[in-house]
Request: fold
Amino acid sequence: MISIVTATYNRAHLLPRLYESLQSQENKDFEWVVVNDGSVDNTENLIMEFMGENLININYIKKNNGGKHTALNIGIEAARYDYIFFVDSDDVLPVNSISVICDKIDLIKNHKNYNRISGVCGSKAHLNGQLTGTTLNKDLICNYLEFRYLYNITGDKAEVFKKKVLKEFKFPEFEGEKFCPEALVWNRIAKKYNMYFFDDVVYLCEYQSGGLTDKIFKIRKESPNSTLLYYMELYETKNISRMVRMKALINFWRFYEASDKEKYLGNFPKSILNFMLEISFKVYFSMFKLVSYFKKSV
Reply:
C-alpha cells in the first residue's frame, strides 16, 4: 500500500538504523525505494547487502548528485504503490508506523470527498520522544496552509501523499541548484487538495550536524530560484494572514540580497510593489494621524 521513499547522500553509517526500523514494522505492506543521490561512501554495497537478506521489499536506484528534491522526484516515478511516505536516511519509524498510516488511509477512503484529499499526515518526534512542534490533539481535515497558518501548527510533520498527487505536483528543478523547500510543493498541493491530519507519532527524527537543517541558510542562499519561488508564492497566497505574507516578503528580499542575483531567473510581480505601496501608505497615514494628535494636544 505504501512506498517509503528515501533520498540518501553519504549516509551509509546511518542507513542500518532506518533499515532495522523497517524490518521491525508490524505491518510490512510497503516497499522501500532508496534513491542514492551520487554517494561516494559505502551506500551501494550496504543496500545490496540489505537486498540480499530479502527481509523487506527494496527498490534501489542510483543517480548523479543533484540534491534531495531531484532524488525524491525519481523516487516518486519509481514508486509502485498508491501512497508515498518520504523518510530521511537519518531517521527511523516506530514499529507501528505503517499500521497506523494504513488505518488512517482506510479511514479516508470512506470519506465522501476522498478524491479531494491528498493524503494523511501524522506527528514527528525526536528520538527521545519529544514532539517536533505543536499538535491539535484531534483529527482534522483541512488544507496544509490552513493547518499551518489558521491553526498555527509548528514543527516538521510526517506527510504521506497519494502518488498521483505528487506526480501532479513534482519538485521544481533548476539547473545548478541542489535544494528545493518541501513546503513549496506542500503549499501548491494545499491550493487544490485537503489533507487528513492526526496526532499519532509515526516518525522519529534526529537532525544531523552538517545536514540540511543545520546548514539551511547557506543551502537556501545557494539555490535562489527555488528559495525565492517559495517565498514569492507564499507571499501571493491570499487566504493567509497579512503578517505571514509580510514575513514571506521580507525573506524574499533577504535571500535575494544574499544570493548571487545573476542566477535568479524569476520576475518581481507587480503584486509585491502594490503590497509595498499599501504598507507605505498605511505607515504614512498612521504617522499623519499621530502628528495630528500631538498637534491637538499641544
